[in-house]
Write a structure and sequence with these properties.
alpha/beta; Rossmann fold; 10 helices; 7% strand; binds zinc ion
């Protein structure tokens, strides 16, 4: 009898696991859609990555892998629906290197706009963009600002993680290379991949190319499109060979913690949509 009772409990636990509400849009069933909308507070995360060379040693999809993992791990603590793999961004500066997937500018724009409209049409009122690619923030901010061009019944939020003093102190203890030149596929990003996907990192090749700033163009107070190529033609900025899994764990846990807090705040937010409506009511 007791055995039967224990078996019954195990069976129920198994059934509960099978009925778990998935976060990824592509893993949900249509029957679960209303439940996912309710539990997420009509909030959908749009993780944006890119396909581009990341030095000689970390994967082409590093940016996508990172944002996908942040979303997957954060939504286990604070539920939201997660849009599947999205790697359509601004990456013209890497077309001379293998693996870059650089769509025409208008396709990138139309894709982002149509994607948000489709997420909205499926019942979401809040879209949270999380971005892993350094060439995207200007595009994303301009995109979000232009959402005021015409009335929409959803709002787009941009998650921008920051470093508090306790985190910066801990990071400084672990960090070994020059922080001012540590960027694309450098110590921090390589550490992040070593923590999230060590199977994809080739530490042996991290020093096969230089990630130093080559300073081939210097016009004071001027921005040009070729600045990144001028500085980093190897599409590598920093020293990935100094990376450690411990540093990656710190960076990712900090970011994921901030994302959980941001999701809670966005889900609780009633003002953005209310102010957006008030604004459009006043626009003639
Ligand atoms: Zn990257």
């Amino acid at each position: 009898m007791r055995k039967l009772f224990v078996f019954g409990l195990l069976f129920l636990a198994g059934a509960a696991r099978a009925q778990e509400l998935h976060a990824r849009w592509d893993e949900l069933t249509a029957s679960d859609w209303p439940k996912a909308l309710a539990r997420s507070g009509q909030t959908c995360i749009l993780p944006i990555g890119i396909l581009e060379k990341h030095g000689p040693h970390v994967p082409i999809g590093s940016d996508l892998i990172q944002v996908r993992e942040w979303a997957a791990r954060a939504t286990k603590k604070e539920y939201a629906v997660v849009f599947p793999d999205y790697f359509y961004g601004q990456i013209n500066e890497a077309k001379h290197q293998p693996g870059a997937f650089a769509l025409p500018e208008r396709v990138v724009w139309d894709m982002l706009e149509a994607t948000c409209d489709e997420i909205g049409r499926n019942g979401f009122k809040k879209i949270v963009i999380i971005n892993g690619h350094g060439g995207n923030p200007q595009l994303i901010r301009y995109f979000i600002q232009t959402r005021l061009e015409k009335r929409r019944d959803y709002a787009v939020y941009f998650f921008e993680p920051s470093g508090d003093s306790a985190y910066v102190r801990q990071l400084n203890v672990l960090h070994k290379s020059d922080a001012s030149t540590d960027a694309h596929a450098g110590e921090r990003e390589t550490s992040s991949l070593l923590y999230l996907r060590p199977d994809l990192v080739q530490m042996d090749s991290a020093s096969n190319e230089s990630g130093a700033n080559q300073r081939r163009l210097d016009i004071p107070n001027i921005y040009t499109a070729i600045w990144w190529y001028a500085d980093y033609p190897n599409h590598y900025a920093g020293d990935g060979a100094k990376a450690t899994k411990a540093e990656g764990q710190l960076i990712n846990e900090h970011t994921i913690g901030q994302l959980v807090d941001a999701l809670k705040a966005v889900k609780a937010d009633t003002k953005t949509l209310q102010l957006q409506k008030e604004y459009f009511d006043r626009v003639k």
